[in-house]
Amino acid sequence: MVRALASQPVATAIVDGEVVAATPAGVPSFERLQQRMNLVAESKVEQAEIEYPVAYYAFDLLYVDGVKIERAPLWQRKEMLCRVLDFGEVVRLVEPIASAGREIFRALVASGLEGMVAKRRDSPYLPGKRSPSWLKIKAQQTADFVIGGFTPGQGRRASTFGALLLGEYDADGKLQYAGRVGSGFRDAQLEEYRALLEARRRKRSPFAAPVPDTQGETYVRPNLVAEVEFAERTSAGQLRAPVFQRLRPDKAAHEVLQSGAEESSPATTPAADFSGQAVDALLAQLDRGGAALTLVVDGESLPVSNLGKEMWPAYEDAPPVTKRDLLRFLIRLSPQILSQLRDRPLTLTRYPNGIAGKMFYQKQWDQPRPSFVETVSIYSEENEGASEYLLCNNLGTLLWLGQIADLGFHTALARVTPGPDAINQSTEFAASRAAVIDSVLNYPDFLLFDLDPFVPAEGETASVKNTLTREGFAKSAQVAKWLKSTLDSIGLRAFVKTSGSSGLHIFVPIVRNLDYVAARAAQETVAKLVVAAHPRDVSMDRGTRAGKVYIDLNQLGRTRSLASAWSPRAKPGAPVSMPLRWEEVGEADPLAFTIWTAEQRLRRSGDPWAGILEAKQDIRALLG
DNA sequence: GAACTGC
DNA sequence: GCAGTTCAACGCCCC
DNA sequence: GGGGCG
Ligand SMILES: [Mn+2]
Ligand SMILES: [Mn+2]
To answer: Cα–Cα distance between A93 and A76 in angstroms, integer?
Structure first.
């Protein structure tokens, strides 16, 4: 190899590349390379050269004959690299592949390769730096393993366990050690599994050979099966980057045989978004320290930065919410949030410097974006043409929104997709204003009653404001109940959530056969009944609202948007717009629903808004 | 927060 | 290279 | 009708 490089037709050049050793099957292996690099004696190297043929794969050129070119765009550096070096058996060129990234990735995973590096065509060379322009995309694997024991935990986990010792049965029916897994467990799981392990505890190791690199381990009867995700198996029988997914009570231990690993899909599937496994794996990634890191979400890379930045300052008893805290919240609540955002054009409320800093709204996104972020092309009056609007249809996008400091998720009340309740409208939005008017985007899924109590004066202390908020909320709750009984009396089912401060949002899911104008007229009819019954407490007119609750019908419009259920709000204390059961209206404290408490609330009370889109009602029939 | 624009 | 700019779209109020 | 505010 040294000979091949020395005979190049160039005086001086700095080339970046990798020495690669092919296995007999032709699949490059990082491990074989390391073996080869550990050989130092010259004779051994020569012998190895024959046994393990190696090649130098050049992929970048930084310097050639006195000229630094590291700032030139990648495609130019590649072009020069081609011209500068002679390529042959030993020195090879890493050929760029300009398109079809997903197809290539699938093919490479299928052939057992580790992953690939995606680079922007126009990116400069950044030595040793993580860059959003260069993304390492890994193939993830999952497999089932028999649990043969556990290691003691440290610190907070001293009372449970550190890692599970994993094994697989070989052809002789012997349990062979296959590595360990210590991350991906929720606190509750640690306790639960420790109890399961305790019940199976035994003196003798179930493994055929001693377990390497452990001390103080406890062995168990090998009849529990765990599903584990990992990046790679090393030949020493370890797993690289293993993350626990779940127990497999449905699988018998004797079914766990060696070399049964299955590839997971790199694509974003709804199943992956909504599985607890994806959630646990991501939380484990985020728990690695540092102000910046690259998350792997469903096989795609997402760089995140400024993880320690306070997006919400400390408020009353609650600690500040950092960007890392926000991302954790988004991961944990992702099934709820995503179900509310799906297929609805977004309005971002962005606070790059936290809620105290300058904010801006953003709807159109004509900039570069991660490949998993979906957009839809919609005609915009302002632009006199189509622009790209963002959709949040997967976990990666949700976390990306967190990264770009979108602290409140506002959506349209109409979706971009048709359905059994909207079969005649088009899904063509780009051509003209008229096209949008004729499309599903002009047909909302809900009537929306936005109840805004009159809350006097700004500039008070936090505790005075909280009192005023609670008083305002009590009035909203009263009006909400009156509104509900009115809706009940005409046979309409409604859903209610807190707005995130003192107001309430009441949604009535409807069949999409009324456009925004007709829907607004329908809810005006209902609202007038409530105002007529309680004129001293309710108003539909901003001017005469002092001391009353204002029913704001303006929020239902084609170009309007509203904070979604389960969305955080960019207000002090990091409140969350929380779905309520009707029995809770009047009792609930809206300030108690925050980024810190939302998950516990979900686990305890469930999601009162789950299935809201399956509760649609045909009010056109009702209106006659 | 990130891309683009203009000096 | 670095500073500055941009990032919705309403109703409402006031001039 | 336009500018500023939220
Ligand atoms: Mn409101
Ligand atoms: Mn309002």
So the answer is: 15
Structure tokens given for A220? 């168990």
The strand B neighbours among A residues 354-373, by Cβ under 7 Å, are 360, 362, 367-368
What are the pLDDT digits (tens) for A330-353? 999 999 999 999 999 999 999 999
A116-130: per-residue pLDDT in tens?
Answer: 777 888 888 876 654
A268: in domain: no
In chain B, which nucleotides are within 7 Å of a protein Cβ? Answer: 1-4
Q: Which residue has the tokens 């009707």?
A: A582
Residue A266 lies in a domain: no
Where would I find the H helices in A507-547? 516-533
The Cα A528–Cα A525 span in angstroms is 5
C-alpha closest to that of A269 among A300, A302, A228, A303:
A300
pLDDT tens-digit profile of A195-251? 889 877 878 888 988 888 888 899 988 888 899 999 888 767 788 888 999 988 767
Q: Are residues A213 and A347 in the same domain?
A: no
CA dihedral (A595, A597, A599, A602) in degrees, to 10, reads: -120
- The reply to whether A260 falls in a domain is no
Could you give the 3-state DSSP secondary structure of residue A287? Answer: helix
- Pair (A322, A449) in one structural domain: yes
Give which of A46, A73, A43 is closest to A61, Cα–Cα. Answer: A73
Boundaries of domain holding A37: 2-129
Residue A520 lies in a domain: yes
- Both A124 and A146 in one domain: the answer is no
Backbone angles phi, psi at A256, to 5 degrees: -85, 100
Q: Does residue A336 sit in the same domain as residue A363?
A: yes
Q: pTM of the full predicted structure?
A: 0.61
Taking C1' of C11 and every protein CA, the nearest residue is: A554
List the A339 CA – C5 C1' distance (angstroms). Answer: 35
Q: Closest nucleotide to A307's CA, by C1' atom?
A: B1
Nucleotide nearest to A378 (CA to C1'): C8
